[in-house]
Design goal:
Layout lengths: L1 H28 L25 H14 L7 E7 L5 E4 L2 E6 L2 E5 L8 E6 L12 E6 L6 E7 L10 E7 L1
Antiparallel strand pairs: 1-2, 1-8, 3-4, 4-7, 5-8, 6-7
Length: 169
């Protein structure tokens, strides 16, 4: 009978210890009521609107659609590597640079129903790209183009190189 009591006492002791540690871990993981100043969210970054479509961009988009109209694509993946100055390093599409950190990549097929993925990159085989942010969206009024914005780590528009991947169903 004393052996049975010792086993139960040991099991209860371990259970209490485990619950105490778990409770202490949960209490430590709770965020503080007031966030420190340096962890505060950055200020608003201004407008997130796209610049108007230029006449040159519209002309390029229309001619690219005409050239790509003969192909019937079931699904396609296309990538484009763009340098910070807006020139295409490799891949498909035509790049138009609008302003600081504003790029448009035009394809020969409709991409408006596709999925887009962009990441900051360098076109060479060396080095890690500078830190920053990249945003990508379908280009307004141009079904065969994608709009890309790049910003530095402070949220200020900056000319940064990127790689864009599009998947079109």
């Amino acid at each position: 009978m004393s052996t049975s009591f010792r086993r139960k006492a040991a099991a209860i002791t371990f259970a209490v210890l485990a619950l105490s540690l778990a409770g202490g871990g949960i209490a430590v993981a709770q965020p503080s009521a007031k966030a420190p100043q340096e962890a505060a969210q950055p200020a608003a970054r201004g407008t997130n609107s796209q610049p108007p479509v230029s006449a040159e961009s519209a002309r390029i988009a229309k001619s690219a659609l005409k050239a790509g109209a003969a192909t019937t694509l079931v699904a396609t993946n296309a990538f484009t590597v763009v340098n910070s100055n807006g020139t295409k390093a490799r891949g498909t599409g035509t790049v138009v640079k609008y302003g600081v950190g504003e790029y448009e990549v035009i394809f020969g097929h409709t991409v408006s129903a596709g999925a887009f993925l962009a990441t900051l990159s360098l076109s060479g085989s060396c080095c890690i790209p500078p830190g920053g942010e990249v945003s990508v969206a379908p280009r307004l009024l141009t079904p065969n183009a994608v709009f890309v914005q790049t910003r530095n780590s402070a949220g200020t528009p900056a000319n940064l190189g990127f790689t864009l991947l599009t998947h079109t169903p």
